[in-house]
Amino acid sequence: MELTHLDENGNARMVEVGEKAVTTRTATAQAEVVMQPDTLARITAGDLPKGDVFACARIAGIMAAKRTHELIPLCHPLPLTGIEVELTPVPPARVRVTATARCDWKTGVEMEALTAASVAALTVYDMCKAIDRGMTIEAVCLLEKAGGRSGHFVRPQAAQSGQD
User: Fold this and answer.
1) pTM for this one?
2) Which of 104, 126, 132, 164 does the annotation list as catalytic?
3) 36: Cβ contacts below 8 Å, ≥ 6 apart
4) Which of 58, 61, 153 has its CA nearest to residue 113?
5) Residue 124: which of 100, 140, 141 has the closest Cα?
6) Which of 87, 144, 97 is nearest to 118 (CA)?
7) CA 109 to CA 100: how far, in whole Å?
8) Cα–Cα–Cα angle for 61, 66, 70, nearest 5°?
9) More confident residue, 76 or 18
10) pLDDT tens digit string along 147-161?
11) Cβ atoms of residues 99 and 113 within 8 Å
């Protein structure tokens, strides 16, 4: 398999997409924050000093997706048409973040979806760290992508998330 971000001498390069066709592209990624059961209870009760954890994390994920090209060195800036970030409590001690990014462009939006999910998970950690420094962020992965030359990808269900 050819690594597209390397030239013939093994040097990093930004992939040329000028000749590629514009197609509709979507990608969905996830991340999970594992915590103490009491931390999840306090999040869902809205009982944290920094405020609404899910609202803040959702906005952080959306903002991060829009800036992915500034964070990941070889990513193209994309004209995103939509970003959705969902945070779901998974009792007894987990928050699942799912992020979907969309665009009509010449390259995919997998990195934008992964960035949104990751930054939203980091924001959950930041907002809850005063009460639970032992949280972990796990299961960061691409769940699905569609559009472009490489076609449709769906991660097998069993590999999508951790289990309690």
Assistant:
1) 0.90
2) 126
3) 93, 132, 134, 135
4) 61
5) 140
6) 97
7) 9
8) 110
9) 76
10) 988 889 999 985 566
11) yes
